[in-house]
């Protein structure tokens, strides 16, 4: 249908505007301010967003749209032939998808419609079996219909209004009393009715008047019964397709008039207690819904009450439109429904509650209407004598049927909102003969609900959307007369529409590589050597139904059909169907229904899962050619590379929310991929310099890194299995990289070679589904002989959660310690503060008594209430404890911190002791803490020996640090190596420094120059007083110098500002300078 409609458009455009077309210059359209739309009657299970509207970007002509895609006029001309569409695009799609790195078995490619005889035969068999099972029926039904195409307009046939269905109204007939107004005098003797479309026939007992818009255009429509209806031309067009006029689709207009012509007319309205009511002016009636005539029930409709009140209170308004007092003032709201919370005059109360002052308070009226309509329908109780005490929702249909039976009303339908066909036609609702699938039939629906209950929808929103669709969906039209497609096997004047011929085509994928062998149009047989005409219904039965007998007369070897049968049995059922969220209310629900219908006794063939995704935004806005916010697959690959684009797409969003492709993020992703590749190259080149050793030599951080890698493997696998690609990218790339960075930072001995190589291998495998080309490149850099595409998913070893928790504890502590140091170093006022050189970390094994009491109380309250009660309850429980009275100001802040910790870490956050060995963790990682805090020494001590302030601040899992500034003496370090970038510098020496401490301190001054502290050697002058004064001999750099021994200990005298070194029991003065060399 899409191709055919677009081809027709191109043909018409060439006929109307020549070749190449010269289109008229369009005036710039004004943008109207959007008015808040009422949610009443809106089916939230349906997606209302038009993909076509987003793609065309407001371009009016099909030729312009295709020109914007980069096609020349000569190329576009060929597209006026529908079949050309089927031949042109597939090669381009395949080229782009291959460049993108999509893995596809191209042997299974095929096109649909009767252009492919193999698929055409499959669809005909599918519909024959659906008819055999009484799922396909024929008859008159209401459907969205395109008058221009003269056929039903299904979702995929629409350029706007996807998911929109017929909205049912009750067409209330209000008889005009004679004498008629002058404009209608020519209709004398004819029964004339103002007809109003209402959603609430049960409220007709409360009519006080009807509304028309003074400036709106109306017509007098002659119906097939001889009655004359006053309505809008748009509504009359709908009526003409619903058997209300003499000829289907034809309207006989007797008069054209405006609302002013029929104001103040006396009317007889059904069910109301007023014998005569009048037509009055309302200025807010819309032309795009209903008939332009509105019944007025001011007791239950806030809009009606506000407008009637305005007319009563404003004589000038009545005078303006020629309305007499007797037409308005005697009419008061009639109590007809009792609504809990609003009483028996619901609208009157609602206008008071929402402070509605006039009919111009649109937003307030919308809110009032939302609330009262829902409450009135679901909770309202009828007060009218015949239905007194009954619920509104129970009597609505009964009253509607009564009105229709008494010829006081008709059933009328129109589209819920504007629907435009791909032919550019505004659609109507038509009552027409057609073939339809009997969706909603109770036993069939029960099967569909059973199938859905066992399916994984990956989201409760999607499941609820399916359930809502099953509630309203019934009798879907499956035939049309226009476009491309398979002909209905038993009624070839009809084509099977595109949403109905593709409900089980996944089963065709399982065997079509043998039938067609990759020839899209099926123009020649595939490996199975089966001709299309051999594929009878009995052959298809044998392939797809386990118990079907072999058709001996088919001329196909049984062994060949058995092979096809095995292929189907191997691949089916559908493990997961991936599709857009806008297809849940149609195609995906049909998909469930038809699988149940085709395999009613074999639920192992029913779908196992559906994964629905949102639409794609670019830079937080919908794609639009007119604004330039548009990007084709080819353009994205050219701009960001295949993997850069794939990375950004994966990061764009998960679940059913619209994904957001952000170009800045794509650029940043490219840089991250580049940085990763460069780092891998560096590691491969320098891996011989990395630390080695058996597993027994693994450090604390080595073991943590192993557990972190294993955990990432498990988390990323779970995310991929649930099609959460954004989450998989997070756990398998961004967070995985962060774990490497953390390991590199915390492991002061340097990274272990085996673990780094394992990390790189794992990283390549984790990112391969998203960035296959980069992963393959990294795989090759590691020296792998076979492609990463043949590699297995990495095996995850054990995950030591306590070890990971301990590492996180260390990272949190380091962060808190750095913040405390920064605060202390800032000082108070302008007074300079000496930077700290040493620190003591205080560890508490238990909480202070008052905090113990609070935590115990919180545990009890949590268990008793299955969660934390309100803070008021917690506060009362704590205040009841005498031992906590002097800590009143500290109680609730501590409670809040405890609750946040529970939210983050679970109930273990309320434990009175820490499950990790804090002292051991901090001690074995003291070198890291010294480095990150940029201090010279660190002690870890129990808080028992600390002062009261430290004890108050310290608790399990939250150590406290105090910083100290120790005296030091500066020495000058000289490098005599020629042609080097190493210079002399001054360095603090502290009492008790070892050679290792001094060397590490030097290395910390400039990591880029001192990458390997082990390569740095220190030398002292034999003559500490004069040796450093001599002019150095570059050929004999070590003359007059001696190596500082590894066992040496430095001592300082801050008073004399001198340094000595202990060597073999004696203290040797060092003088003011030392010599350092690297890799000598």
Automatic annotation (TrEMBL):
Protein name: leucine--tRNA ligase
Keywords: Aminoacyl-tRNA synthetase, ATP-binding, Ligase, Nucleotide-binding, Protein biosynthesis
InterPro entries: aa-tRNA-synth_Ia, LARS1_ULD, Leu-tRNA-synth_Ia_arc/euk, M/V/L/I-tRNA-synth_anticd-bd, RBD_LARS1, Rossmann-like_a/b/a_fold, tRNAsynth_Ia_anticodon-bd, Val/Leu/Ile-tRNA-synth_edit
Record-annotated Leucine--tRNA ligase RagD-binding domain positions: 843-914
Residue stretches making up the Methionyl/Valyl/Leucyl/Isoleucyl-tRNA synthetase anticodon-binding domain: 702-821
GO biological process, one term: leucyl-tRNA aminoacylation
NCBIfam families in the record: leuS_arch, PRK12300.1
Gene3D superfamilies registered for this protein in UniProt: HUPs, Isoleucyl-tRNA Synthetase, Domain 1, Valyl/Leucyl/Isoleucyl-tRNA synthetase, editing domain
Domain Leucine--tRNA ligase ubiquitin-like positions: 965-1078
Catalytic activity: tRNA(Leu) + L-leucine + ATP = L-leucyl-tRNA(Leu) + AMP + diphosphate
């Amino acid at each position: 249908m899409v191709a055919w409609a677009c081809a027709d458009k191109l043909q018409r455009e060439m006929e109307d505007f020549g070749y190449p077309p010269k289109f008229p210059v369009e005036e710039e359209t004004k943008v109207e301010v959007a008015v808040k739309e009422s949610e009443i009657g809106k089916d939230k299970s349906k997606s209302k967003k038009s993909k076509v509207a987003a793609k065309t970007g407001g371009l009016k002509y099909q030729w312009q749209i295709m020109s914007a895609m980069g096609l020349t006029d000569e190329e576009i001309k060929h597209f006026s032939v529908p079949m050309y569409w089927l031949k042109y695009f597939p090669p381009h799609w395949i080229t782009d998808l291959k460049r993108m790195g999509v893995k596809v078995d191209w042997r299974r490619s095929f096109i649909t419609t009767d252009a492919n005889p193999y698929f055409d035969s499959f669809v005909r068999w599918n519909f024959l079996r659906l008819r055999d099972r009484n799922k396909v029926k024929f008859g008159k039904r209401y459907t969205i219909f395109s008058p221009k195409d003269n056929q039903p307009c299904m979702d995929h046939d629409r350029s706007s209004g996807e998911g929109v269905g017929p909205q049912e109204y009750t067409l209330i007939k209000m008889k005009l009393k004679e004498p008629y107004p002058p404009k209608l005098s020519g209709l004398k003797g004819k029964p004339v009715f103002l007809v109003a479309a209402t959603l609430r026939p049960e409220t007709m007992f409360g009519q006080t008047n009807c509304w028309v818009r003074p400036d709106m255009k109306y017509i007098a429509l002659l119906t097939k019964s001889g009655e004359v209806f006053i309505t809008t031309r748009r509504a009359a067009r709908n009526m003409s397709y619903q058997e209300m006029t003499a000829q289907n689709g034809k309207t006989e207009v007797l008069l054209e008039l405006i609302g002013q012509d029929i104001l103040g007319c006396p009317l007889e309205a059904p069910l109301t207690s007023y014998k005569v009511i009048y037509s009055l002016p309302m200025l807010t009636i819309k032309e795009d819904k209903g008939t332009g005539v509105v019944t007025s029930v001011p007791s239950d409709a806030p809009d009606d009450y506000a407008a009637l009140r305005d007319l009563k209170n404003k004589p000038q308004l009545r005078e303006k439109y020629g309305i007499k007092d007797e037409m308005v003032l005697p009419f008061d709201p009639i109590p007809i429904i009792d609504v809990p919370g609003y009483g028996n005059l619901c609208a009157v109360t609602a206008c008071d509650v929402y402070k509605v002052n006039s009919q111009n308070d649109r937003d307030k009226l919308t809110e009032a209407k939302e609330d009262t309509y829902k409450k009135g329908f679901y909770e309202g109780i009828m007060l009218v004598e015949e239905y007194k005490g009954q619920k509104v929702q129970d009597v609505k249909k009964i009253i509607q049927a009564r009105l229709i039976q008494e010829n006081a009303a008709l059933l009328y339908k129109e589209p819920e909102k504007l629907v435009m066909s791909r032919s550019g036609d505004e659609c109507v609702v038509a009552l027409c003969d057609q073939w339809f699938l009997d969706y909603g039939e109770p036993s069939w629906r029960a099967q569909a609900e059973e199938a859905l209950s066992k399916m994984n929808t990956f989201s409760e929103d999607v499941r609820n959307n399916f359930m809502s669709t099953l509630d309203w969906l019934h009798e879907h039209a499956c035939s049309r007369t226009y476009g491309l497609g398979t002909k209905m096997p038993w009624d070839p004047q009809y084509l099977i529409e595109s949403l109905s011929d593709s409900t089980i085509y996944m089963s065709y994928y399982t065997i079509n590589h043998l039938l067609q062998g990759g020839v899209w149009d099926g123009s020649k047989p595939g490996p199975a050597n089966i001709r299309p005409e051999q594929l009878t219904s009995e052959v298809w039965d044998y392939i797809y139904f386990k118990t079907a007998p072999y058709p001996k007369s088919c001329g196909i070897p049984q062994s060949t059909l058995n092979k096809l049968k095995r292929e189907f049995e191997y691949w089916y059922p559908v493990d997961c169907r991936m599709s857009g969220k806008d297809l849940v209310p149609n195609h995906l629900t049909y998909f469930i229904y038809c699988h149940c219908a085709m395999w009613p006794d074999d639920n192992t063939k029913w779908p196992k899962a559906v994964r629905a995704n949102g639409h794609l935004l670019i830079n937080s806005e919908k794609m639009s050619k007119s604004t330039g916010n548009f990007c084709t697959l080819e353009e994205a690959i050219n701009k960001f590379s295949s993997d850069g684009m794939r990375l950004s797409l994966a990061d764009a969003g998960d679940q059913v929310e619209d994904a957001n492709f952000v170009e800045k993020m794509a650029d940043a992703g490219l840089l991250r991929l580049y940085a990763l590749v460069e780092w891998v190259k560096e590691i491969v080149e320098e891996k011989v310099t990395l630390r080695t050793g058996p597993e027994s030599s693994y450090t604390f951080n080595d073991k943590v890194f192993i557990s972190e890698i294993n955990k990432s493997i498990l988390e990323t696998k779970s995310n991929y299995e649930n099609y959460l690609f954004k989450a998989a990218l997070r756990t398998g790339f961004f967070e995985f990289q962060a774990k490497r960075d953390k390991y590199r930072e915390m492991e002061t001995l340097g990274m272990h070679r085996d673990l780094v190589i394992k990390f790189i291998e794992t990283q390549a495998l984790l990112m391969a589904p998203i960035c296959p080309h980069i992963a393959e490149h990294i795989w090759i850099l590691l020296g792998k002989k076979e492609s990463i595409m043949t590699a297995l998913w990495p095996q995850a070893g054990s995950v030591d959660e306590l070890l990971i928790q301990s590492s996180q504890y260390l990272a949190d502590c380091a962060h808190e310690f750095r913040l405390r140091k920064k605060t202390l170093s800032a000082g108070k006022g302008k007074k300079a503060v000496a930077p700290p050189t040493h620190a003591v970390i205080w560890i508490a094994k238990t909480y202070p008594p008052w905090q113990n009491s609070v935590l115990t109380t919180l545990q009890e309250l949590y268990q008793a209430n299955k969660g934390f009660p309100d803070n008021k309850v917690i506060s009362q429980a704590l205040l009841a404890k005498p031992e906590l009275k002097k800590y009143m100001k500290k109680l609730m802040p501590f409670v809040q911190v405890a609750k946040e910790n529970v939210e983050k870490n679970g109930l273990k956050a309320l434990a009175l002791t820490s499950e990790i060995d804090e002292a051991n963790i901090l001690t074995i990682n003291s070198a890291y803490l010294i480095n990150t805090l940029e201090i010279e020494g660190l002690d870890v001590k129990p808080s028992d020996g600390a002062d009261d302030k430290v004890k108050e601040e310290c608790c399990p899992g939250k150590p406290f640090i105090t910083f100290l500034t120790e005296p030091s003496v500066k020495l000058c370090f000289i490098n005599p190596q020629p042609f080097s970038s190493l210079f002399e510098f001054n360095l603090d020496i502290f009492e008790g420094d070892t050679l290792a401490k001094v060397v590490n301190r030097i290395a910390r001054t400039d990591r880029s120059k001192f990458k390997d502290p082990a390569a740095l050697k220190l030398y002292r002058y034999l003559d500490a007083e004069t040796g450093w004064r001599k002019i150095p001999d570059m050929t004999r750099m070590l003359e007059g110098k001696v190596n500082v021994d590894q066992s040496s200990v430095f001592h300082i005298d801050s008073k004399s500002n001198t340094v000595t070194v202990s060597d073999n029991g004696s203290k040797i003065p060092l003088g003011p300078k030392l010599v350092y060399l690297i890799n000598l």
